[in-house]
Amino acid sequence: MSLLSIRGISKVFPGGTVAVDDFSLDVASGELVCLLGPSGSGKSTVLRMIGGFERPTAGVVSIDDEEVTHVPPNRRPTGMVFQSHALWTHMNVYKNLAFGLRLRGLPANEIRDKVEAVLELVGLAGYGRRMTNQLSGGQQQRVALARSLVLEPKILLLDEPFASLDQHLRERLREEVRDIQQRLKITTLFVTHGQDEALSMADRIVVMRNGRTEQADRPEVIYRDPQTPFVAGFIGTMNFVEGVVEKGRFMHDNLSVPVPVSDGRATLAIRPEALGLIACDPGPATVHRVTDFGTHGLVDLQLADGTRLKAMVPEPDHFGAGQSVDLRPRAFALFRDDRQLYRTSADA
Fold first, then answer.
1. In a designed cystine with 41, which of 109, 132, 166, 208 is the match (CB 3.0 to 4.6 A)?
2. Which pLDDT value is given to residue 86?
3. H helical segments located in the chain
4. What is the pTM of this model?
5. Please, what is the Cα angle at 106 between 135 and 55, to 5 degrees?
6. Domains in the chain, ordered, with CATH?
7. Which residues pair with 4 in a beta bridge?
8. Domain named ABC transporter: which ranges (predicted)?
9. pLDDT at residue 347 is higher than 60
């Protein structure tokens, strides 16, 4: 197991484009950390600088207290899995996996043992003679993962490896990768723009925005206690209502909740599962649409000023389009000037 330390790395491309701005992070031995953010947030650039495929403009990258900032990729104790798989199509699976081991000068019998073991690990035992273009997308991604793991890296780097796969295959593979990572206890950094992947796989999530860390914490904390409106809106579904605080209450038309903050403009944020509905005529909101997902229903609502909200309900057949309802927030957060002012929870 190995420790990854990143201190103040930045990347400025020719022309002055700042991709990463003073980014720091420690990843503990055996930990899986997800870098999560929209396109252009700098997450893949961070990963490429750790792997040696981009040179930082400033900052230091260390693995087990040894600086590797300017060490070329082939000499770093890292293994990287790309979104595109990057497999050699003129080689079969065995040769793809054995290539790096041959460069290290390992004897043929040791190479064979390592390749067979890693193919077993990723669920592809017996696939060594297959050509890579004869494999499905999911199998190709397993081979790409195996090619990195066979070199026994200290740090595993995954750059949106499931982005090109369909939803069901993505879900299955991320469970398999998480199982393998925990079994090997390998320190892993995983880049994704998919919140579901981050929430289901990560020990910690680092939400990135404009090349910087917006918030870093455990998945449940990121979801339940977002520190900025950006994090609140990027992780999961969030309802935002603009209003004003006066005399200890946030108010927007007929929606009002007590908040112990100073007067002024503010933004109320409520998760759909924390927004209760009660039939009420007249009420501050009108049902626009109801979607029944079997396990729950999602009610689309509209306030008088056109603000749209969503509420998760256990019995969707109790609501219908055009119905007037009252809103009962069970938990919410309040934001002002791009930071959280106050938060309550459903069990408070």
1. 208
2. 76
3. 43-51, 93-103, 108-121, 137-149, 167-184, 195-201, 219-224, 229-234
4. 0.90
5. 75
6. 4-228 (3.40.50.300), 237-343 (2.40.50.140)
7. 27, 63
8. 4-235
9. no
